[in-house]
């Protein structure tokens, strides 16, 4: 119960504070743009092309938030997941779908602050007495600033279809979809709405996000 309250408070504080990230006339969320398929957008430590790269966002990354008060020339400070840094604004564009969903989420939080963790939880979720445990995973053994390749099939020669940052969390496996590729075991995963195959060497069970997802699932299912 204590953990549930802590997580709920954290979500509520994040939702309220994020209202200051965009002006009233600004879209709420953005996505990567003008990056070739399977490419990455560099997120830098400060607004300069020579600044250290602290993160690489995949070409199809969405749900990027702007810190609108923090910009310099063509550079914009952004937040993506739990990380923030600077990107060239040429490479981000309005994410209309995410903006609509985020606006609805914020309205829900404002109307139901006592039960904010359930805002956005699928209305069609199954009965909480019949729920299976959700296990989520994190990326490991990938150097900072580099990415884990997501491929179209379970082998190193398959087409690269996306990239996952070195510090990504919340990755979900498809337990029944595994294969042997060379000397490695490959698993089908879903991350940020994208499905593909990764080398399982670079994944590790993440008890924190797993616990959080299951707390929300138990609390919010009808």
Describe this structure in words.
The longest helix is centred in the first third of the chain and has 16 residues, at 2-17. It is globular, with a radius of gyration of 18 Å. 21% of the residues lie in helices and 36% in strands. The strands form five sheets. It has a five-stranded antiparallel beta sheet. It starts with a helix and ends with a helix. The protein has helices at 2-17, 96-111, 207-220, and strands spanning 30-32, 40-44, 53-58, 65-72, 75-80, 83-88, 92-94, 136-139, 147-151, 160-165, 171-181, 184-191, 194-199, 203-205. It has two domains: 2-99, SH3 type barrels (Roll); 130-220, SH3 Domains (SH3 type barrels). It is built from three helices and 14 strands. It has 222 residues and is of the alpha+beta class.
Secondary-structure topology with pairs:
Layout: H1 2-17, E1 30-32, E2 40-44, E3 53-58, E4 65-72, E5 75-80, E6 83-88, E7 92-94, H2 96-111, E8 136-139, E9 147-151, E10 160-165, E11 171-181, E12 184-191, E13 194-199, E14 203-205, H3 207-220
Antiparallel strand pairs: 1-7, 2-3, 4-5, 5-6, 8-11, 8-14, 9-10, 11-12, 12-13
Keywords: Signal
Organism: uncultured Thiotrichaceae bacterium
Signal peptide: 1-22
């Amino acid at each position: 119960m204590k953990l549930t309250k802590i997580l709920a408070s954290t979500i509520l504080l994040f939702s309220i504070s994020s209202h200051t990230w965009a002006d009233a006339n600004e879209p709420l969320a953005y996505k990567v743009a003008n990056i070739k398929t399977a490419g990455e957008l560099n997120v830098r430590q400060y607004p300069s092309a020579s600044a250290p790269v602290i993160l690489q966002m995949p070409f199809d990354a969405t749900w990027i938030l702007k810190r609108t008060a923090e910009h310099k020339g063509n550079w914009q400070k952004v937040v993506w997941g739990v990380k923030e840094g600077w990107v060239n604004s040429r490479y981000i564009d309005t994410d209309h779908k995410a903006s609509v969903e985020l606006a609805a989420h914020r309205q829900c939080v404002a109307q139901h602050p006592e039960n904010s963790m359930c805002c956005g939880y699928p209305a069609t979720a199954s009965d909480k007495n019949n729920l299976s445990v959700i296990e989520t995973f994190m990326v490991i053994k990938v150097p900072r600033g580099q990415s884990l390749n997501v491929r179209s099939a379970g082998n190193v020669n398959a087409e690269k279809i996306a990239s996952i940052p070195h510090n990504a969390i919340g990755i979900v496996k498809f337990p029944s979809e595994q294969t042997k590729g060379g000397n490695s075991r490959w698993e089908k995963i879903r991350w940020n709405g994208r499905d593909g195959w990764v080398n399982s060497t670079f994944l590790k069970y993440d008890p924190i996000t797993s616990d959080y997802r299951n707390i929300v699932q138990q609390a919010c299912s009808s």
